[in-house]
Amino acid sequence: IYTTSQSSAASDVYKRQLTELTAAGGRFRLVPGKDPRDRHGRLLAHVYDPSGRSVAEELLRLGLAYQNPFPPNLRHLDCYRRAEDAAREHSRGLWAAPALDAEQIPGGEQGFRRIEGRVASVARRGNALQIQLRGPLALRVRDQDIHHFPKRLLDALPGARIEVRGWLYRWRGHPRLRLRHPAALRVLKAD
Asked: How far is CA 110 from CA 21, 78, 82, 149, in A?
């Protein structure tokens, strides 16, 4: 999961809720992911409170985090998706704010973002499938990740309105976002 500190209000709520989750004391259990560390050496693990409840699931249910699928660490993906969907449905926490509009991404905008936009094109570019949204944002699905994406999903993308989440970065001054798993992409209902 990814917890954000984009707004101090959300950050304060997150800190208060995390304090409540850990206030009872006791031993928390860490279960490392299939890849136990990311490329920066940080531990990637599922955290369980003393009663066995998933801390990630609770934060997602409360809308205090986004699901951030990172293959091969996909344990509990369906559970996390259901928790996040409940928060989305009730506009809890992070879901109370609208997604960033892909056509209006401010210059220099970077970091973890939830973005909505309409797909203008889908084409191969080098070692990736590039999903160009209307506006400057291009989504990249690298060859090493493409096997996670069903063909029917990719075929449905041209012209579709979608929501994505992930790390927004700049490449040659243009915004890019890498998609590693289809759980980071949602096709929205027709306007």
From this structure: 30, 28, 28, 25
pTM of the predicted structure, to 2 decimals: 0.86
CB 101 within 8 A of CB 109: no
Main-chain dihedrals φ then ψ at residue 186, nearest 5 degrees: -135, 125
**Using one digit for the tens of pLDDT, what is the confidence trace for 81-111?**
999 999 999 999 899 999 999 999 988 888 9
Task: Provide the β-strand partners of residue 51.
Answer: none
How many whole angstroms separate alpha carbon 112 and alpha carbon 3?
Answer: 9
- Is the four-CA dihedral 139, 165, 117, 6 of positive or negative sign? negative
18-47 pLDDT per residue, tens = 777 777 677 889 999 899 898 889 888 999
* Mean pLDDT across 118-123: 97
Q: In 3D, which of 87, 89, 47 has the Cα closest to residue 63?
A: 87
Token readout for 43 is 């531990």
> How many Cβ atoms from other residues are within 10 Å of residue 128's Cβ?
20
The tokens of 187 are what? 């096709």
Assess whether pLDDT exceeds 90 at residue 118: yes
Greatest alpha-carbon span in the chain: 52
Q: DSSP letters of 52-114?
A: S-BHHHHHHHTTSSB---BTTB-TTHHHHHHHHHHHHHTT-GGGGSPPEEGGGPPTT--EEEE
């949602």: which residue's tokens?
A: 186
